[in-house]
Amino acid sequence: MATLQEKKNAVxxxxxxxxxxxxxYEYLIELGKNxxxxxxxxxxxxxxxxxxxxxxxxxxxxxxxxxxxxxDSDAIxxxxxxxxxxxxxxxxxxxxxxxxxxxxxESIGLKENLSPTxxxxxxxxxxxxxxxxxENMEVLTADDAREIAPLYSNVVLALKQVYDPExxxxxxxxxxxxxxxxxxxxxxxxxxxxxxxxxPMADEVMMDVKxxxxxxxxxxxxxxxxxxxxxxxxxxxxxxxxIELGMEDE
Length: 250
Prior knowledge:
Blueprint: H1 4-16, H2 21-33, E1 56-63, E2 66-73, H3 76-89, H4 94-99, H5 104-107, H6 116-135, H7 142-159, H8 171-174, E3 177-182, E4 187-192, H9 202-214, E5 221-226, H10 239-244
Parallel strand pairs: 4-5
Antiparallel strand pairs: 1-2, 3-4
Helix pairs in contact: 1-3, 2-3, 3-6
């Protein structure tokens, strides 16, 4: 079976065969036509992806530790887009899907060549795939949970050693860490943001996060997902950060 990277490379290569976006749209339409039939009993609101202008249904099953997706849409371009996505990510492990940056979408130029409503729909599809992956991450036993619980506080301490390049407060108290999960594999998975999308030191800060977290005894890796939704604002500051910045009365 092809690896995740091989499948993404194949998509990039397929799109590179076409010079015009009209031809690429035709390719997407053909992908949609080749979708496996979607079960009628799951064509309900419970399976709709929220945020898509067209109706998109998504279902999945776990088999041998891997996620397999089924999908359909009532719009031909949207059907092609969801077909493209599940063609790449079906058969992958939840942890690999959750950690992936979906960067191949940028490589083929899909997002910028869609209408704003379709681009928003694409973002919603990606978010739902990642959500499905996180929902199906390997369940911890009670013993696993007891072993992993102390790691959270140590990872938080490591995060507090990393500072925002523009504000003299650590990234944890700034509220830049949106989510921290430590799996059975002892890999820390972090969703984080920055105070502004164009932070010039973003790569350096994320490298500091990765290095600091991976130095925590018991942690075997660190995977970072950079997001900008919801957008950061001052309400996300911790009480300690507000005191440090002289904003305790705000």
